[in-house]
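In this section we walk through a basic example: taking a raw amino acid sequence and producing a predicted 3D structure, encoded as discrete structure tokens. The instruction is simple. Fold the sequence below.
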Amino acid sequence: MGNEAKDILVVMVTASNQEEAARIADQSVQSRQAACATTVPMVYSTYWWEGKVVREQEAMVLLKTTAEKYPMLRETIQRIHSYKVPEILAMPVADGLTQYLEWVREETS
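The resulting token sequence is shown next.
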């Protein structure tokens, strides 16, 4: 693993629908809190909520950002999101194409 990627994160967010996912993606990128947002329009999530198993159709957003920008990004997502407890997971990138990692840093600075 020669490419320094420890400051790069992929943030996964599920949203109630494609419109909400698009709002999260647009605001995150326009504010430069994320360099890129990839939206998956339809996923199915099965989870426990308020004592019962729920199966919902949702949209997913994968945001590429830096550790420095993550706290602001998380706040933006929480402000936009319709869920009481939104899924916001930040995962560190172990390795990546050097040029892409540099691009993420540049576009979020």
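Looking at the output, two observations stand out. The chain has a mean pLDDT of 95. The longest helix spans residues 18-30. In the next section we compare this with other chains.
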